[in-house]
Structures are given as structure tokens and as C-alpha cells.
Write a structure and sequence with these properties.
With 164 residues, the protein is of the alpha+beta class. It is 41% helix and 16% strand. The strands form two sheets. A three-stranded mixed beta sheet has the order 4-3-5, with no helix packed on it. The protein has a two-stranded antiparallel sheet with strand order 1-2. Helix 1 runs antiparallel to helix 2, helix 2 packs across helix 4 and helix 3 crosses helix 4.
Length: 164
Amino acid sequence: MTEPCPHGRPTPRARAAVVAALAYAEAACTEAGESWTAQRRRVYELLLGSVQPVKAYELLTKLRVGAVAKPPTVYRVLDFLLAQGLAHRLESEAAFVACTLHDDHDGTVGFLICDCCRRVEEVTLDESDVRDQAILRGFTIRRTVMEAHGRCPRCAAGDAVQPS
């Protein structure tokens, strides 16, 4: 287990932003001909409400409050959210985050992950270097994901402050 960040916790999304993201997700699913069920909504809401990556079993624990939820249910919902572009899986964390860019990226996405506070920032990438290398090798890219670990500005600034 890692020690808590001494710089404080990241700021959660504003409730208005969560409500807007939930409305976007429902509309996108409806437009795609997919059902926006209560469980899908709840899991997405939990991802949106988290300031850090969330593991599937953490979601399961939160879903079990007041209801019966089993691991396959959570994984099916996560698979759905991933397929709809509403969530991302962070490979290095074995955890999930809500997509914050939606239509602002074309499958080329990166994540800046703070090793201190665990805040994750989603960024768009220029995949031209990777694409050029793939073309040279006859490789077809389906998606490109980059995860960079380091320190967010707040934690880096906090590390620079020396106690007196």
C-alpha cells in the first residue's frame, strides 16, 4: 500500500460536470441504439465521481451498498463503457477512469498519472511518429494509448517546498 499524498487530495469534479457527463453518456448511448441502464449509469457516475483511478472491485464494493452486485456484472458494465468510449482502462494501474475528452480525440489518447496523489489527466496525442513506424512495418494500429507516470504540478510544487 502506498502512503497518502502529503499534498492533499485532488479536487473532485463539480456536480454540474458530472450531471452534464451523465446526460452526454445517455444521449450517446441512445443515439448508438444502446440501452442506458441504471447499473451502467451508476458505474459511470462512480467513475466520474472519483478523483483517482478505480479498480473493478472498488466499484463492486460501492455497488453492493443497498443492492446485490457480482463481479461479472461490474466487468460487463465496464466493457460496455469502454466500448462506448465513456471510460478508459489504465493498464499500469489495472484500474478505470471516466473519459473526459469524448469527441475531442480519435482513439489516440494519453494519460498523465501522478504517482503521489494518483490524479489522472487525459490528453490527446499526436500519433504521427507511432503511425509512421507502423506503416514502415506494415502494422495496422487500432488504438494508441500512452501512460506517463510522474508528479502533477501541485505535488511537484509541494515536493519543492522544504520544511523549516
